[in-house]
Amino acid sequence: MAPSTAQAPGASAGHPPHRGATPHGPGAVARQGELPAVHDALVGVALPALAVSPRHGQLTGAGLEGVFLAGRRLLSRCVLRVAGREPVPLQSRSSGAERADFLGVLRAPGDLGPDPGLVVERSRDADGTERITLRGSGPRPVRVPVELALGTDLADLGAVAAGRPGPELSASVHGTGLRWTAVDGTAVTVAADPPPSEALAAAGLLRWDAEPASGAPFVLTLRVRAERAGRPQPAGAGRPGGHVLADAVAEGDDPRLGPLLRSCVADLRALLQRDPAHPADVHLAAGIPWRCGPVTAEALWAARMALPLGTRLAATTLRALARTQLGGTGAGAGRIPGPLRDAGPLLPPRCTGVEATLAFPAVLAEAWRWGLPESDLAELLPAAERCLDWLRGAVDDDGFVPDPWPAGPARAETQAHAHRAAVLGADLLDAFGRPGADAWREWARALRERFRARFWLDDPAGGRPLLARMPDGRPLPQQGGWAAHLLDTGLTAAGRPAPGLLDKARTERLARLLVSPALDSGWGLRGLGEKEPGYQPFGHRSGAVRTHETAVAVAGLAAAGQEGAVATLLRGALDAAEAFEFRLPEMYAGERRAQGAPGASPVPHPAACRPAAVAAAAGVHLLTAVLGIRPDAPGRTVALDPVRSAPLGEVRLSGLVVAGAPFAARVGRLGLGMVEEAAPGLQLGV
Length: 686
Known about the structure:
Elements: E1 42-46, E2 49-53, E3 59-60, E4 66-69, E5 72-75, E6 77-82, E7 88-94, E8 99-106, E9 118-125, E10 129-136, E11 144-151, H1 157-161, E12 171-174, E13 177-181, E14 187-193, E15 198-200, E16 205-210, E17 218-228, E18 231-234, E19 249-252, H2 257-270, E20 272-275, E21 278-284, H3 297-305, H4 312-322, E22 340-341, E23 350-351, H5 352-370, H6 374-394, E24 410-411, H7 412-431, H8 437-454, E25 456-457, E26 464-465, E27 468-469, E28 475-476, H9 504-514, E29 545-546, H10 547-559, H11 563-579, E30 587-588, H12 613-627, E31 629-632, E32 637-640, E33 651-658, E34 661-667, E35 673-677, E36 683-684
C-alpha cells in the first residue's frame, strides 16, 4: 500500500513517481518524480479537506505544506511574526484526526532577562480554521504588533507533490481579510476575527496591535474558504454524515488500548469520502496524502477489518466497487478493474483489481455474519456471483490464479484470497438457495491439495511456503510478511474460522517462521525476510513493516491457537503504535529492534501514508482478535474465542456492533471471555 501514485481527493492517478531518496522534512522540495517526505509532518484530515503542517507550525509554502480542499491547495503560506520575530517552537502534536496544535515562545519587548515573556499557541484544523492565542506572563499588558504573511498558489496536490507548484497569486483586500482568484475563476478568502488594523494586499500581510496580559490573552481566528463560480465552498462541505462507524471504546490493564482504538476510529472517520456520482455511498481513502482517489482494494480490506464498528461502510464500499465491475460475457467479465502496484524487486507489479475481485465475495459473506441487512445482501449478491464466475475461468493450466491476470505469476497470497472467496462464497450461495455451493467447496478442497503440493518447500526444519511460482514454473522461496495471508481464513457458518490452505503441522511451522528474527523486526513483520536476497528495510515490499500484515498475522495465529506467536507480534505492534503516537502509518522501516539508535524505536518511512485506511483498521483488527469475537447474526448467535494466555491482561471492548445492536465483551486476566451487552435474542454460541 505504498504511494505508487500521488492522487488528490477525487482526482485520478498520475504517473508513478520514482522511489528514490527524498529530501528531509515535510517542507522539503522534491526533485521531479519524487515524493516529498511527510513522515515528520502533522496532518489534519477531514476529507475532502486536509492540512499538512511542519513541526514548527509555520506554513512557508515549501514542499507539501498547506491547507487543501478536494486536492487543491487553498493556503500555502501562513507565517506568524510577533514584534517582528517568529516564535521559538517548543512543542507540536496532533490533538485528533483533524487538528494539530503548536506551542512557541518569544521574549517580549522590554524583557531584561533571558526568560520568554510571551507564549504563542496555535491550533490548525483541516477545514481551514486556525486559532492563534498570544499570552503574556508579565504583570502588565505589553503592546506588540502581530503580523501574518499569507499566500496561496491554488495548485493541485499532484503538482505540489511532484515539485511543480504554481506561482503565488496576487491578493486583494476582502472583508476582514484577503482574497485570491485563479484563472479558472476559483477563489479563496481568508477572514480574520478580530478584523486586522491594517491589510497590505500587495505583500499578503494582515496586522494587529495586541496587548496580551496574564489572564487576558489576545485571540485571533482565521477561516479559509473556497469559492467556485461565486459559490462558497467551506472546507468541511460534503463530509459524510450519519453514524458510519460506531464509537467503540477499549479499556483494560494496558493503558495503551484506549488511545489506540480512539485514534484508529478517528482516523477512519477522517478518511471517509463520498462517491461523487452516488453521494449516499461512502468509502475510505486509501491514505493521506497520496492515495485519496477512487475506491480501492485497500478501502475494501479496511472496511472488512472495521466490521466490528458496523456493516454500513462495508456495504457502501462493496456497492461502489460493484459499479465498476466489468460486464459482458468475455474472459474478463465479472472482474473488478484496478491499477497495477509495485510488488517489490522479485515480482512484477500486481493488479489491485484481482485482489478486489477475490475479496468481494469474502467481505460480503463476513459482513453478513456481522449483521449486514438482507436488503443490502440481496443487492450485492449478484455482483459476488459474477466475481466467482470470473474466478472459475481465471485459473492457469496448473489450477492457480495468476496476478496480474492472465499471464502473471501465481502468488501464494493470491491463492489465499481465491481460496477464501470460494469457501465463504459457497456459504452465501447455500444460504440463499443459489446453485453452485458444493462445487465451490470442492474447488477449494482441490486448491488446498494443489497448494500444499506446489507451494510448500520441504526442508529438515519443517519447510516453508513459497512466495510465488513464476509463469515458467520457477519457484520463489523468499519469506516475508505476505505469508500472514495464508492464515487468514475468514469466518464461515456459525462464526467459525473457515478451512485454511495449510494443515495443522504447516500452520505451526509458519507460526515459528513469522516470529523468527528474520521476519519479526520486534515492531512487526517485515515484508521480506532480513536474510533474503533483495532485503531493504525501507522497501515497501522488500523489507518494510506493513502495519496491516502484522494485524492479519495476529488474527490468523489467534484463530489457529498459536498463542505464543500472537503474544510476541501483538506486543511489538502495540509498542510501535505507542511510538507513533497511536496514529499508525501504512508502513515503517524493518530495522531490527534493539537498544540504542536506530533500533530503540520504529524508524518511519519518509513516503508512507499516515493516516492510512488499512493501518487504522488494523488497530481495530488487533484488539478484536484478542477477544476472538465470532458473530453469526443470521443464526442469532455470537461466540467468544479469546486468546487464553491474556497477553494484554484484562481487555474490555464496548460500543461495537453485532447484528445491528451495541455489543460489549471482555476477556479477563485468566483468559476467560464474557459478553456484557448484545442484541436482544442473540444467543451465546460455543
